[in-house]
Amino acid sequence: MVKVAVVTGSNKGIGFAIVKGLLKRFDGVVYLTSRDVARGQDAVAKLNELGLHPQYHQLDVTDRDSVAKFRDHIEKKYGGIDILVNNAAVANIEDRTYEASKTVVDINYFSILTIQELLFPLVRNNGRILNISSDCGHLSNIRNEYWIQRLSKKDLTVEDVNEFANWFLDGVKNGTFDYGDIADGGTIASYRVAKVALSAITRVQQKELEAKNISVNSMHPGLVQTDMTRGVGFYDIDQAADTPIYLVLEAPDTLKGAYIWYDKQVLDWFDYKADYYFKIRTMIK
Ligand SMILES: NC(=O)c1ccc[n+]([C@@H]2O[C@H](COP(=O)([O-])OP(=O)(O)OC[C@H]3O[C@@H](n4cnc5c(N)ncnc54)[C@H](OP(=O)(O)O)[C@@H]3O)[C@@H](O)[C@H]2O)c1
């Protein structure tokens, strides 16, 4: 049986470096996927120049048909997935319109529900799923007491997390959202809400996949020099790929449903008073 690794949004940035690292270290085939075919093929060509040969498939995580086509392709060609890195994301630095907020929450959070529905059933026993979150995904980014308590529930459900995301989006739509409910003066609120939702749903997903001994974790890759940060960061993409690759290849298989920092430290996601939230001032060159 051929082992299969898949990285979403991997035509550039950290996802691209994760593909590159896996091609060097993973004993199986590695899928570079992208929403735009031309950008994906350019990325494949770059790896080919290094003597590395990923498989390629189009995959737009917000397009159900695209995810279904990818699922059918993998099912037919390899029968399953061993490693799935959910990396695709966008950040919209300061656009507080409803449309911009919805785009960020759709790509960074709601898409994971489509992936969960269509791709998780393909993940084989003992497989590993990694949701690339952010320091924006730590619970300390939320300052609303009700949601801190509700997202901390032991028996958290997908409905809880969806209602959290929709609480934000409805508030933005109606012009009633209090940005004081988000840390750091509500900067990049939509991205924080989406990433907190992603790290929260990771716990629900872990419970669902426990019987197959699949691990589902979320992590913060550090502040990394990519297009998303307009080149600001203390890591380059290859350095940033180190911890994600460790988590899907080497971490103990008892590490489950956890939130992991870029230095491989497992953090207490529930510690809402901690100082792990993102500070916009770190973006200033
Ligand atoms: N860089 C940082 O400092 C930092 C910090 C914390 C967390 N992160 C997280 O790390 C991950 C990688 O970020 P990055 O910095 O490498 O960002 P990036 O360079 O902007 O790359 C993001 C990737 O996601 C893809 N993408 C966006 N929407 C998509 C969709 N609907 N379907 C499929 N792919 C889509 C992009 O494709 P296109 O080229 O088509 O746009 C691109 O390949 C993200 O989850 C991000 O939130 C990054």
UniProtKB/TrEMBL annotation:
GO terms for molecular function: carbonyl reductase (NADPH) activity. InterPro entries: CBR1-like, NAD(P)-bd_dom_sf, SDR_fam. Pfam families: adh_short, adh_short_C2. Keywords: NADP, Oxidoreductase. The keyword NADP applies. Gene3D superfamilies: NAD(P)-binding Rossmann-like Domain. Its EC number is 1.1.1.184. It is an enzyme of class 1 (oxidoreductase). Belongs to the short-chain dehydrogenases/reductases (SDR) family. PANTHER family: CARBONYL REDUCTASE (NADPH), CARBONYL REDUCTASE 1-RELATED. This is carbonyl reductase (NADPH). It comes from Spodoptera litura. The gene is LOC111352744.
